[in-house]
């Protein structure tokens, strides 16, 4: 196997942090890039990677980062500003900055993970931005680009999975808007990482490819499948006459996911999200044992254990200790909040909170979060 020198932008994110671990396991030299390099000190792989400061929105910062990184064979572009104001324009500018600097530095290949782009002239801001970013990464004389498109990624810590989790946990009657009947091709985080690592290799030709799991479902079926596997009985209730834009804002309020991020993702649900016929699986063999089905991926994502360093996860579907603090479910959040005021000898008893019904836990969490916001932030005690 050829060892490559690989720079990962967005290395502190959900995908990026796991990708760094996967690339290291594959024997590559990795450079982690981010706006705040000191943030990487909390990642389990920190002592095995080089680190550079890179703000994709600042052309000078990007050029300085590529210069500091030295020779780079492959650059992974995992930067996005979804959820922020005017993210579409900012994302296009960031991609153009990285593409220009990569061309000047002689980077051979850029691997970009975006989303499916459905047919049609009227796309959501999120979906349109993903396609525009791919276009901005192509510059004359620049690096070749491998663009991978994916729909929902199943794994604890993934924003789309966490939205599915909180919808299934908090609502006894799950809302089923018209888009709940739209088809979708989800993919497990394990298989996303497998395809991302493969995309760096020269055997994969430059171009645009979709990646997906082995099963097509619908949003509604996916919500019911989650609820069943999570041990909850849930009925669906048809939601009629509610505009998707309005529903996206309501979702942002109802779920503990950053408001702008949740709203932008929900706005994209108005479209079927199925893979095109141009798939990476045509060039890359399936992983050992085959691609994971929806139920197996959800089961793995629901495993309850203490979040571990991202490079020491028993399974990439599990929650890492560097994943977003709002991820992992209401019970975990309540346990973390309770641990800040519970003596170490009594903390094992916090496991009993798992018996609290999920909708009740959701309501309790809302109250505790509101209460926590009233007090100055302090460093929570370490778990025993």
TrEMBL record:
Coiled coil: none annotated. Residues 10-116 form the NAD(P)-binding domain. It comes from [Mycobacterium] wendilense. Pfam families: NAD_binding_10. This is NAD(P)H-binding protein.
